[in-house]
């Protein structure tokens, strides 16, 4: 029996979306996967080596994140040409732009019943644009929803945000393989607070810097693993920016840290947070869509909204080794229980098989 063919279409092939697609293609080897992608600055060099050798890659030359009518029309034509030339049993769209263009292409070709769309943080959640632009993005999401396909969020709070806009969405929690229990360490000297991701508006580096600056001279070191256009905002004396690192190097940095901090303005569901949980790190996350699902307050960490709250909680963790270790163990256990990689694979396998039959 021939394997089902799955097309992953993504205009934002970097960061968490990149890792998400890699996890799906690695874990669902019973399907034949092709990835239509547009690279980003953070797309790893020689990224193909990270994927199973059976995965096929197709460059989506005209696709880009921001709206550009001419390039978007060209990107749509590229997708239409591919879907006319080759039959796919399932079309899985990742991120807002691919979600809109992909559902339009599928509707034009009568393929909408084969479509799944995972927003990874829909564009209407963006807080780096005006309210008018957010309303426009929400309108585009509702229009695309009318074209058909299943909307599958990667967290419960993301699904809830979509439902508030009149978009019926289910969710499958993103999972992460975590084979070995980590070593739960006592607080280090200096106490190290870490984050991982692109230094961009979504990740709110200004707030990260504000928290760090309030703790200068108090034996707390801040590490940002990543790079990006807003790097100049990280000016506090106790902040180190590593640049982009290999996966192995990121794991080493997480292992050395005491606490994971996310200052994000919005998320879909942050894979970097799951990696921190796998490393046995307590979580201190700004309250937003995506982050909300990862924290059981007081058990594996805390949610916060203002810099002053984050500073107080960092001091609490620094001065309470027992709390730090208990939260670290709870973070790891919650990952294994709620964010199971095996469960994620099982649910997506069932979804793909249902779509292929429809």
Tell me the number of helical segments per DSSP (H or I, 4 or more residues long).
11
CATH superfamily of the largest domain: Glycogen Phosphorylase B
Percent strand: 15-25%
Number of strands: 13
Rg over alpha carbons: 20 Å
- What is the domain total for the residues? 2
Mean pLDDT: 95
Through-space gap between termini: 18 Å
Order of helices and strands: EHEEHEHEHEHEEHEEHEHEEHHH
Tell me, what is the CATH class of the largest domain? Answer: Alpha Beta
Give the helix proportion (percent range).
40-55%
Could you provide a short overview of the structure?
By secondary structure, the chain is an alpha/beta fold. It is built from 11 helices and 13 strands.
Could you please describe the fold and organization of this structure?
By secondary structure, the protein is α/β, with parallel strands linked by helices. The protein has helices at 15-27, 69-85, 96-108, 131-146, 156-164, 205-214, 247-256, 271-278, 307-319, 321-338, 341-357; strands spanning 5-13, 32-39, 56-59, 90-94, 115-118, 150-153, 170-171, 191-196, 220-225, 239-243, 259-262, 283-286, 301-304. The strands form two sheets. The protein has a seven-stranded parallel sheet with strand order 3-2-1-4-5-6-7, sandwiched between helices. A six-stranded parallel sheet has the order 10-9-8-11-12-13, with helices on both faces. Helix 2 (69-85) packs across helix 3 (96-108), helix 3 packs parallel to helix 4 (131-146) and helix 6 (205-214) crosses helix 9 (307-319).
């Amino acid at each position: 029996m021939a394997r089902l063919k799955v097309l992953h279409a993504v205009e934002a092939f970097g960061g968490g979306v990149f890792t998400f697609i890699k996890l799906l293609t690695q874990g669902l080897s019973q399907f034949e996967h092709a990835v239509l992608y547009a690279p980003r600055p953070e797309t790893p060099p020689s990224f193909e080596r990270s994927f199973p050798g059976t995965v096929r890659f197709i460059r989506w030359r005209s696709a880009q994140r921001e709206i550009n009518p001419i390039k978007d029309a060209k990107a749509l034509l590229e997708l239409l040409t591919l879907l006319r030339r080759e039959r796919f049993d399932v079309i899985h769209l990742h991120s807002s732009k691919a979600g809109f263009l992909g559902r339009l292409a599928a509707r034009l070709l009568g393929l909408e019943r084969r479509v799944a769309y995972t927003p990874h943080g829909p564009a209407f959640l963006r807080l780096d644009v005006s309210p008018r632009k957010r309303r426009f993005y929400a309108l585009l999401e509702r229009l695309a929803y009318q074209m058909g396909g299943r909307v599958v969020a990667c967290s419960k709070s993301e699904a809830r945000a979509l439902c508030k806009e009149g978009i019926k969405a289910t969710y499958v929690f993103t999972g992460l393989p975590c084979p070995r229990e980590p070593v739960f360490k006592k607080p280090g000297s200096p106490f190290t607070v870490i984050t991982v991701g692109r230094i961009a508006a979504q990740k709110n580096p200004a707030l990260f810097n504000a928290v760090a600056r309030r703790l200068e001279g108090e034996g707390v070191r801040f590490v940002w693993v990543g790079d990006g256009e807003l790097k100049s905002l990280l000016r506090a004396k106790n902040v180190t920016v590593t640049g982009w690192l290999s996966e192995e190097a990121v794991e080493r940095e997480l292992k050395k840290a005491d606490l994971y901090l996310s200052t994000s303005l919005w998320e879909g569901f942050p894979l970097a947070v799951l990696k921190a949980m796998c490393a046995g790190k307590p979580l201190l996350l700004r309250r937003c869509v995506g982050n909300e699902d990862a924290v059981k307050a007081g058990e594996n960490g805390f949610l916060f909204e203002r810099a002053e709250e984050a500073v107080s909680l960092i001091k609490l963790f620094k001065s309470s080794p027992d709390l730090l270790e208990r939260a670290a163990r709870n973070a790891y256990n919650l990952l294994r229980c709620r964010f199971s990689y095996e469960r994620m694979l099982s649910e997506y396998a069932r979804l793909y098989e249902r779509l292929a039959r429809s």
